[in-house]
Each structure stands twice: as structure tokens, then as C-alpha cells.
Amino acid sequence: MGLGAVGSCARADQLHPVYLGKRCHLPGGEKSLAQIYFRDGRKCAKDDMLIIERTGGWEFGCRYISITQTGQKLPASTKPRKADWIPVVRVAARCEGEGDEPSNAQFVLKYYKGMLTIAEAK
């Protein structure tokens, strides 16, 4: 199933700007339940790219249903100022993969020191 951008239902403006944009998947994390992405200017294959848009949506053909902050914040840098703490968010989405039945999924997005982690919510 390829990654891409899709339309949204929830208010994507609830996402901190650091979550938005094109990212490349960090190789070697296939055994982990969480997927890690970097926005460091490296070129990556389209199949390895994740795009999160404010007016669109995000990976796996998912549309936002709801976006909520968990109350947890993580530092965006080694010596963070008050503005450098990024909220962890839980995204509920309606996902439709090619050949798959539509399903609802929940993901947790975390940004920590230049790295975006997306994990299925428990």
C-alpha cells in the first residue's frame, strides 16, 4: 500500500506545523510497531514518502476524523525554549487502502528532536 495525501474531515489546523510536510521513512524500523520519518532534505522514493497536509490528509489513504492533543509535550531541540515543546496528538482516521475494506484507525504522532514517529494508538 503506497503512501500519499488525501482529503480531510476533521480540522487539520489542530496539527502543529512541525507535523506538516513531506517526510522520508527511516530505513531499518520495519520490526518496530512505530514508523519513524525525517524531514532532512534527503531524496527518497515516492513509495517511502509520507505527506501530511493541513488541507489534505495523510498516509495510507486516510482522512482525519478527529485530532486531539494527549496533554503530553516533547522537546523539538536539545535545549528547548517554551515554544520548542511540541504537543503529542492522537489522530482518528477513516482509512481506505487499495483492495482493502475501509476501516477506522487511531494513530499517535510524536515529534522529538527532528524525528516524527507514528504509532498505532492502543
Distance between the termini: 22 Å
**Structural class given helices, strands, pairing?**
mainly beta
User: How do the SSEs run, as a string of H and E?
Assistant: EEEEEEE
Name the shape in a single word.
globular
Calculate Rg over CA atoms.
14 Å
Question: Into which percent range does the helicity of residues fall?
Answer: under 10%
In which order are the strands of the major sheet placed? 3-1-2-7-6-5-4
Mean pLDDT: 75
Query: What is the number of helical segments per DSSP (H or I, 4+ residues)?
Result: 0
Number of strands: 7
Strand content: 35-45%
| Low-confidence spans | 1-9
Using brief descriptors, characterize the structure shown:
122 residues, mainly beta, seven-stranded antiparallel β-sheet, globular, disordered N terminus
Structure description:
Residues 1-9 have low confidence and may be disordered. The relative contact order is 0.26. The protein has strands at residues 21-25, 35-38, 49-52, 62-75, 85-95, 103-112, 115-120. Strands 3-1-2-7-6-5-4 form a 7-stranded antiparallel sheet, with no helix packed on it. The protein is mainly beta. It starts with 20 loop residues before the first strand and ends with a strand. It contains no helices and 7 strands.
Question: Could you outline the blueprint of secondary structure elements for this entry?
Answer:
Blueprint: E1 21-25, E2 35-38, E3 49-52, E4 62-75, E5 85-95, E6 103-112, E7 115-120
Antiparallel strand pairs: 1-2, 1-3, 2-7, 4-5, 5-6, 6-7
